[in-house]
Amino acid sequence: MTIDRRLALLDHLYAVYDRFCLSLGDLACRKYCADCCSRNVTMTTLEGLHLLRGLDTEAQDKCLAALAGVDDQPIFRPRWTTNQIAARCRDGLDPPEDDAVHDGSRCPLLADAACTLYPLRPFGCRCMLSRQACGVNGYADVDDWVLTVNTVFLQTIEHIDRPGCFGNMQDVLQALGSEDRCTAYREGRAPTEAPGLIPNQPAPVLMVPPEHQEGIRPIWEEMQRGMTG
Ligand code: SF4
Ligand code: SF4
How much is the average pLDDT of 135-164? Predict the structure, then answer.
């Protein structure tokens, strides 16, 4: 699939997810509520390219400089993609341990507690939807139904972004900030040699528990309309 087709599909998936968010009841998420904005955000190369393409050269440089400024600080580097975890679950294996770095770090793309590239933020930021302000309990209170829908979107974005990679937002954007790697990715090669990135995998099975299978159907059909159109 060409990179332009993949980008168009991602726009479609973001629009479907926006409509899903409107269907949810009261959430605590508000502008300037940014406890969830850590350096642990993960994303695919497709989301990274979508983000960088939405910025002019000056804004791109500013974004990459902000990430480079915290280069020496610890970040969560995933060892498994969402679809690899799905394959383990399908095979009856336990999901791997989460070894995220929970150090209260702040995303360097925040300014005055607001995201500087909010309309372009990756799915991992879009899908943080909490019923209570995270500052109250120290974690997001996410409904199980939302977690299921989020997983289906994460699996789908990874599935369509092949050959592409998954990793921490900092690693993905820095890899795409290199002209050679970005060109290689646009031409259909995965920048797997970039530090911290792992190759995306096809979705082996959608991780939807029985109690959510009926509810996910119309959302899945809406997602598919963009895939087949
Ligand atoms: S996920 Fe938590 S910290 Fe982030 S906007 Fe929502 S309530 Fe605020
Ligand atoms: S990219 Fe934006 S929304 Fe995502 S963690 Fe950083 S500041 Fe928050």
Answer: 94
Note the pLDDT of residue 102.
Answer: 64
Rounded Cα gap, residues 171 and 40, in angstroms: 11
Q: Residue 34: which domain range?
A: 3-228
List ligand 1's pocket residues with C-beta within 6 A.
Answer: 28-29, 33, 35-36, 128, 130, 133-134, 140
Mean pLDDT of the chain: 91
Calculate how far, in angstroms, residue 59's C-alpha sits from the geometric centre of ligand 2.
15
Amino acid type, 102: H
Ligand showing the shortest atom-to-Cα distance for residue 169: 2
Per-residue pLDDT reduced to its tens digit, 163-216: 999 999 999 999 999 888 888 888 888 877 788 899 999 999 999 999 999 999
Q: Ligand 1 pocket: which of 105, 130, 132, 141 to mutate (most atoms <8 Å of CB)? A: 130
Task: Please give the pLDDT value at position 53.
Answer: 94
Count how many domains the chain has.
Answer: 1
Q: Which pairs from 183-190 meet CB under 8 Å and 24+ separation? A: 185/3, 185/45, 185/49, 186/3, 186/49, 188/2, 188/3, 188/163, 189/163, 190/45, 190/162, 190/163, 190/164, 190/165
Segment 58-67 mean pLDDT: 94
Reference 34, options 134, 171, 148, 145; nearest CA is 134
Alpha carbon distance 84, 30 (integer Å) = 33
